[in-house]
Amino acid sequence: MEEITKDWTILDIANYNEDLLDVLAGFGMHCFTCPLSQMETLEEACMAHGLDLDFVLKKLNEENK
């Protein structure tokens, strides 16, 4: 499995593994339906939602295994 990084867009994550959208939703990030998801990186989305990027990445990559 490929490791998800802060530079992936929300759309990249959705296209790579749709199951990971549940992880994002668990953090209150429902932006995968938003037009910004096509260009907003995970890092930018975490900043906008006040989330710890490292923790979100850890959870996404754990779920991705």
Overall SS class = mainly alpha
Globular, elongated, flat, extended or rod-shaped: what is the shape? globular
Taking all residues together, what is the mean pLDDT? Answer: 90
Task: Please tally the helical runs, counting DSSP H or I stretches of 4 or more residues.
Answer: 4
Rg over alpha carbons: 10 Å
Unreliable sequence segments: none
Oligomer: single chain
Q: Give helix % range.
A: 40-55%
Number of DSSP-assigned strands = 0
Largest sheet entry: none
**Terminal-residue CA separation:** 7 Å
- How are helices and strands ordered from N to C? HHHH
Which percent band covers the strand fraction? Answer: under 5%
Number of domains: 1
Provide a descriptive summary of the structure in words.
The chain has helices at about 10-15, 20-25, 40-50, 55-65. The chain is about 50% helix and about 0% strand. It has one domain (about 10-65). It has four helices and no strands. It is mainly α.
List keywords for this structure.
65 residues, mainly alpha
What is the gist of this entry?
The chain contains 4 helices and no strands.
Question: Topology, pairings included?
Answer:
Blueprint: H1 10-16, H2 20-26, H3 42-49, H4 53-63
